[in-house]
Design a protein that fits this description.
The protein has helices spanning 50-63, 76-89, 102-110, 181-192, 197-206, 215-224, 234-242, 272-283, 285-293, 322-340, and strands at 40-46, 67-73, 96-98, 142-149, 172-175, 210-212, 229-233, 247-250, 258-259, 263-265. By secondary structure, the chain is of the alpha/beta class.
Length: 341
């Protein structure tokens, strides 16, 4: 099965260009009837922060009290390792996966692990975040940016290349690609980007960044000043800034890699109708409004971005071919680990 994709044609879209499908073909799988999901129980694997996924699931179960959702939360790397072990044993323990990167979902789709489902809500979201074969759909935009501690950094970097300046030696933190799906994806995107590539990654490594377990510890290190510069997803920067921390996001001029936190349903779920309802909710207007309150950039044009966040049309998004990133990501992580660890 060939599943060639472009990850970032969305870079050319403005929010006003996203209401595309008023006359599109209706979904092959209509939204399931709640009557078919009485007393259903779902297990969701996710890399979402616990507090945020708890808020989403609480809102979902208020709408669908007939469905109980159990959440298992871990980093994307840990989740994929768990799923691989469960697949080998013949029984994946989750009904759905909500995690960081599209390449992971492409791999699962090629292995026939995902259920095809075209949500009726998908007509209202950014079309580049929808798998054309409907095995998964993005749920938010998560650009990786440069974060700075504003109490420490007076002259903020404006580009990724700035971070190779020896002045930043020992001052940078970034997440571990063995744990963070976004970080693994970023490694492949940076190596693929002509303005960056291996020479930039080597220059960054020469500044001896702190490799934290995930994006959360990176943002905390920047906020407290132990690492006054960080490479981190932008939503965490907004969270900490809103809480009063001296932290600010910089969107580098070369462009930013981004992931879309896709959700997909495992093909062997025993509760497909309930699982479809959860997918619908995550990309619905209500689900996206909750995402915005959690500092995420929304994927619907009828939902406003978080206060203080740039418009998507104002952000330069790096635009690699998904198939190339999939083919090179494992080697990119190996290269990263050889340079940084």
């Amino acid at each position: 099965m060939s599943r060639n994709r472009s990850l970032g044609a969305v870079a050319a879209l403005s929010l006003s260009a996203l209401a595309l499908t008023a006359c599109s073909t209706p979904a092959a799988d209509a939204s399931p009837d709640a009557a078919e999901t009485e007393a259903a129980s779902l297990t969701l694997y996710t890399s979402e922060p616990q507090e945020k996924i708890d808020e989403l699931i609480a809102a979902f179960t208020e709408q669908h009290p007939e469905i109980d959702v159990e959440v298992f939360r871990a980093g994307t790397g840990d989740l994929t390792a768990r799923i691989a072990a469960e697949e080998k044993a013949g029984d994946i323990g989750a009904d759905l996966l909500l995690a960081a990167d599209a390449p992971t979902f492409e791999d699962y789709a090629e292995s026939d692990l995902l259920l095809e489902y075209e949500s009726p809500e998908a007509a209202s979201i950014q079309q580049d975040l929808i798998d054309p074969e409907h095995f998964y759909v993005g749920t938010r935009l998560l650009p990786t940016v440069i974060a700075i501690n504003t109490n420490t950094i007076a002259d903020a970097p404006t580009s990724w290349n700035d971070l190779t300046d020896p002045a930043y030696a020992g001052k940078i933190a970034m997440p571990n690609p063995d744990v963070s799906g976004a970080a693994a994806y970023n490694a492949a995107v940076w190596l693929d980007e002509p303005k960056l590539g291996l020479s930039w990654l080597e220059g960054l490594a020469a500044n001896r960044p702190l490799i934290a377990e995930s994006n959360g510890p990176v943002s905390q290190a920047v906020a407290e000043g132990s690492s006054p510069v960080g490479i981190v997803v932008d939503s965490l920067v907004r969270d900490l800034a809103a809480a009063g921390s001296p932290i600010e996001a910089v969107y580098p001029e070369e462009g930013v890699p981004f992931v879309s936190q896709p959700v997909g349903i495992f093909a062997d779920t025993e509760q497909p109708e309930a699982a479809k309802l959860l997918v619908d909710f995550l990309i619905s207007k209500q689900g996206q409004e909750i995402a915005v309150t959690q500092s995420y950039l929304p994927i619907r044009d009828d939902v406003q971005s978080p206060e203080g966040a740039p418009e998507i049309s104002d952000i330069v998004l790096l635009n690699p071919e998904l198939e190339k990133i999939r083919a090179t990501q494992a080697a990119a992580v190996e290269t990263f680990n050889g340079l940084f660890q």
